[in-house]
Amino acid sequence: MKKFNIGILGLGTVGGGTYDILRDNKDIIMERTGVDYAVTRILEINEKAIAAHGVDPAIVTQNVDEILTDPSIDIVVESLGGIEPSSSWMLKALENGKSVVTPNKAAVAANFDKLQKTAKEHGVQIRIEACVGGGIPALTAITEALAGNKFTEVMGILNGTTNYIMTKMGDEGLAYADVLKDAQEKGFAEADPTADVEGIDVANKLSILMALAFGKYVPPTEIPTVGITGVTMDDIAAAKEKGCKIKLIARAAVKEDGSLEYEIKPTEIPYSHPLAGVNYEFNAIYVTGNAVDEVMFYGKGAGALPTGSAIVGDIISIMRSEAK
Ligand code: HSE
To answer: Could you tell me the residue ranges of all domains in the chain?
Structure first.
């Protein structure tokens, strides 16, 4: 039976969730893939995290090259976050013949072409399902099951933290600062939650969605973006009067002349609209294709196990294709 060795960079919220799923669901994963695997090396400095996940300290390192250049490691999970050094480390892993799986939308959106090109040049894979929509398998659907479509629009709620905040402020009347703290404690927010509340995280995700759905890379910094920091309780009450909720909506569409329009902003959504029912850390992604018409994906957009689920799905895809 073929055996794959996995290295994990970072045992934070998502890296930790991934480790737990790989350990707890190993029997079913082995049965479904017909391969064996082990996490053989983890880059982590936080002793509490190492103990909390019951990791054998013997496999923990603080030297990233023990993962990036170790010939025995087949797959690297990069779950550190931030553009650098994560991007350089992913490139180094790919150059050393390892496939890479990452939830790091900031790094992928900043270096989309370079990461894809390097993987191709070295005959390995970079898989990024966890970058958009947490546990929702929207990217795999767009690039595989729906690949026969010309896409005309992608839109939706792409950030769990801000959707959690908007839901708690709107439905429970709680204060912004308290709800943000709550979202941070639950592991939904980025290390610097500015990326969530200013819409930067959504811009990273929309950039990736556009690259995959429309084949056009737009840097996140070029996407007109308004976050939720300017949304007040008065705005929420005024929306309620009109039978609406305020949601942070991302949208990209193909115009009649073939060019793309794209934007991220807080938007009033009528209660009757399906997106009004997407609450707390849940995300929803609508995709319109010229054959399938409208498809909507819904699920948890943040959190250790939902995002870990997407990472483990990508690891399984790599193991299946490389075991052939
Ligand atoms: N901070 C992100 C969110 C994590 O709240 O959606 C998942 O990408």
So the answer is: 3-135+304-323, 141-299
